[in-house]
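Sat 14:20. Reprocessing the chain from the morning session after the first attempt stalled halfway. Input below, unchanged.
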Amino acid sequence: MLRIVVGVIFVGHGAQKLFGSFGGGGTEGTTQFFATVGYRRPALMAVVAGLAEFVGGLLLIAGLLTPLASLLIATVMLNAIVTVVLPKGFLGGWEFEFMLLTVVIALAATGPGRFSLDGALDWSDNI
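Finished this time. Tokens:
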């Protein structure tokens, strides 16, 4: 259940960045935002971040390649914490991103669970 909830959150955030879904800025708006926080190639980073969230979320929902899904999402969360929310402090700043980072690291460490494609394919040692 945890995998699915967190996966849905990231599919939604990725769709905002890539397609402008759910009130997001799409690649154009995300590119503009990434430029304001100092990324050297903001258009490329907008697509990379969007794909990492969207694909990582889908993989997490399915419980497929769970360590890879966790790595994709953890990378985006670390970037968000360091480049955007860290100066705001913990409460009201980076606690949400830190919680999501912690969850995906825990999922990578403990495995996707019994009801997952990794489990069905016998790709997980931690079922």
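The first helix runs from residue 2 to 19.
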